[in-house]
Design goal:
Blueprint lengths: L31 H14 L3 H15 L24 H22 L6
């Protein structure tokens, strides 16, 4: 395939490829230990590490206030439907690992504790 001399971009659209409805891009400083734990958990479970951090924060911040903490579905999954190959046992295992990661984050965040 060769490049054309000219291209028609009159119908082109600018913007991000992925939808960001309900999400806001921010820059945040996190402890190295938190990032490493999230990446490790994400790698083990097949999720992105930012999804792991988001879901952990959502679970901690929203469920403590009595609000339902909705967990993001991985790519290819819809509400009420698990990603192909993911079982209820897998979800329980992930929930346990998220709880452990959350407890470690809380421990590190305690006043006077240095990671």
């Amino acid at each position: 395939m060769t490049m054309k001399d000219e291209y028609d971009f009159s119908n082109a659209k600018r913007g991000a490829i992925a939808s960001s409805k309900g999400k806001t891009r921010i820059t945040i400083m996190l402890d190295d230990a938190v990032i490493e734990a999230a990446r490790s958990l994400a790698e083990d479970e097949g999720f992105g590490y930012q999804t792991v951090i988001n879901n952990t924060l959502r679970q901690s911040l929203l469920s403590d206030k009595g609000q339902g903490a909705k967990v993001d579905q991985p790519s290819g999954a819809t509400a009420g439907q698990l990603k192909k190959g993911v079982t209820a046992t897998d979800l329980k295992s992930l929930e346990q690992k998220l709880a452990e990661a959350l407890n470690e984050i809380r421990r590190v965040m305690e006043p006077g504790i240095r990671p």
